[in-house]
């Protein structure tokens, strides 16, 4: 009996050390190229490169984008046509393209930013996977199945929460189940301030199904 207990304790200690080693190694892995280029880790979401939805104005946001990317070797930056209260920024290098939509939901450049939306393009290397995003935001808090497209492709919204207020949303196209490798089509950061018109919680929202892991989509159907 004593030998059995000793072996069990030794096995438990070994597994604990191995798990800790794997976590440390994973954290030391370099960021995927899209995460590195977008600087999504410069500040805690929903902040991006110093742009904080609900606080930073659109005029200030344009200055911060220029400051971050104007001198980055090999990266092209361009702005869409001027529209009051809205700006589109395109970033591209040899393997990556993304359009970043910064929106105040008001026709004024001195209004605070409400949404920052990253719209990913082909090729596949331009997209972030659920696994990539988990390094930044952990796993989703809620899942919503938005609809079924051509060839039974499901459009799925993954909602990442901060104190149950949804600061980030990721849209993917999925088959019959969720897995780590599925790629995003857009990623949105939103204003979650106490007076934000875009702030909402999970109360009374039947389409927001709590995260149940990487499983079949039928497990995320509405009640």
Strand content: 25-35%
| Neighbour order of strands in the largest sheet | 1-2-3-4-8-7-6-5-9
Distance between the termini: 49 Å
Largest sheet: 9 strands, antiparallel
The secondary-structure element order is HHHEEEEHEEEEE
What is the helix tally?
4
Estimated structural class: alpha+beta
Radius of gyration: 20 Å
* Poorly predicted regions: 4-28
Description:
The chain is an alpha+beta fold and 223 residues long. Helix content is 24%, strand content 26%. It has a 9-stranded antiparallel β-sheet, covered by helices on one side. A hairpin with a 4-residue loop joins strand 2 (86-92) and strand 3.
In short:
This protein is α+β, with helices and mostly antiparallel strands.
Main attributes of the structure:
single chain, 223 residues, alpha+beta, 9-stranded antiparallel sheet, 4 helices, globular
Secondary structure elements and their pairing?
Layout: H1 2-28, H2 33-38, H3 58-69, E1 76-79, E2 86-92, E3 97-103, E4 115-120, H4 130-137, E5 142-148, E6 154-162, E7 165-174, E8 184-190, E9 209-210
Antiparallel strand pairs: 1-2, 2-3, 3-4, 4-8, 5-6, 5-9, 6-7, 7-8
């Amino acid at each position: 009996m004593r030998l059995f207990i000793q072996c069990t304790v030794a096995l438990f200690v070994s597994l604990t050390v191995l798990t800790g080693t794997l976590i440390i190694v994973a954290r030391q892995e370099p960021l995927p190229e899209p995460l590195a280029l977008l600087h999504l880790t410069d500040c805690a979401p929903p902040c991006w490169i110093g742009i904080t939805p609900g606080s930073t104005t659109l005029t200030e946001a344009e200055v911060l984008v220029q400051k971050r990317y104007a001198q980055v070797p090999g990266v092209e930056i361009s702005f869409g046509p001027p529209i009051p209260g809205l700006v589109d920024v395109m970033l591209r290098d040899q393997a990556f393209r993304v359009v970043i939509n910064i929106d105040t939901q008001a026709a004024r450049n001195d209004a605070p930013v409400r949404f920052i939306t990253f719209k990913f393009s082909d090729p596949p290397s331009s997209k972030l996977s659920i696994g990539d995003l988990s390094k930044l935001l952990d796993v989703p808090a809620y899942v919503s199945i938005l609809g079924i497209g051509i060839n039974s492709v499901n459009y799925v919204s993954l909602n990442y929460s901060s104190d149950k207020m949804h600061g980030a949303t990721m849209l993917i196209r999925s088959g019959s189940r969720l897995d780590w490798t599925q790629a995003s089509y857009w990623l949105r950061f939103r204003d979650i301030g106490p007076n934000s018109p875009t702030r909402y919680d999970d109360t009374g929202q039947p389409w927001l199904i709590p995260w149940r892991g990487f499983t079949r989509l039928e497990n995320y159907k509405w009640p």
